[in-house]
């Protein structure tokens, strides 16, 4: 069964610094990969997704992620964070060849941006 | 992408009672997914609901505790039965876009508190 590991449960960072949130998934023939953000007391919002094609995916709010098949990773990056980026970030994976397949989430990474 | 209407948005229930959560989708979808998000935790898949067949439950979840109905391609319910305080969580339904190409859409969630 698919699994997702987010290597950092908490990431504190200063405003305007770069950040990388790490995500690894268990190997599969082919997968869809997602990053979601959840602001305090709010619902899930899709940041970006990898389905196929270019391994560098750009999302909303200046975030991007790179799919690395050999390392089974899908790390999320932002070159300069803002206070408003403080939130919980979830990496998720679904099996590509099962149409509408279930989405499995990582444990989440709490990003805390300090002034 | 699909739009999901989930209700109730929140409820406070007595232990030993049951609560039924409803999700209505504005388009026909093959599979619907039910998740639980315990306080401070990630999303855990409870079950996958197909129209016209029994739901498929993930390890650790059973039909007697979380019965699911899927009477048509736009509607599903999840019941949390014989509730205890440990059931206090946010419950969310989700659907996939066409073959996951559209990403996954989530309902706004039901915040359940069991007292």
Structure in words:
Chain A is 0% helix and 53% strand. Chain A has 115 residues and is mainly beta. The mean pLDDT of chain A is 91. With 115 residues, chain B is mainly β. Helix content of chain B is 0%, strand content 51%. Chain B is built from no helices and eleven strands. Chain B has strands at residues 4-7, 10-13, 19-25, 31-37, 43-50, 56-57, 68-72, 75-80, 89-96, 104-106, 110-114. In chain B, strands 2, 4, 5, 6, 9, 10 and 11 form a seven-stranded mixed beta sheet that branches. A four-stranded antiparallel beta sheet of chain B has the order 1-3-8-7, with no helix packed on it. Chain B is globular and about 40 Å long. Chain B starts with a strand and ends with a strand. The interface between A and B is medium-sized, with 21 and 22 residues.
Order of helices and strands of chain B: EEEEEEEEEEE
Largest interface: A-B, 21 and 22 residues
- The poorly predicted ranges of chain B are none
The DSSP helix count of chain B reads: 0
Outline type of chain A: globular
Rg of Cα set of chain A:
14 Å
Q: Report the biggest beta sheet of chain B as strand number plus sense, adding barrel if it closes.
A: 7 strands, mixed
Head-to-tail CA distance between termini of chain A: 41 Å
| Tally of DSSP helical segments of chain A | 0
Average pLDDT of chain B works out at 92
H and E order of chain A: EEEEEEEEEEEE
Strand content of chain B: over 45%
**Large-scale geometry of chain B:** globular
Average the pLDDT over all residues of chain A and give the rounded result: 91
As a percent range, the share of helical residues of chain A equals: under 10%
Q: Name the structural class of chain B.
A: mainly beta
Largest sheet properties of chain A: 6 strands, mixed
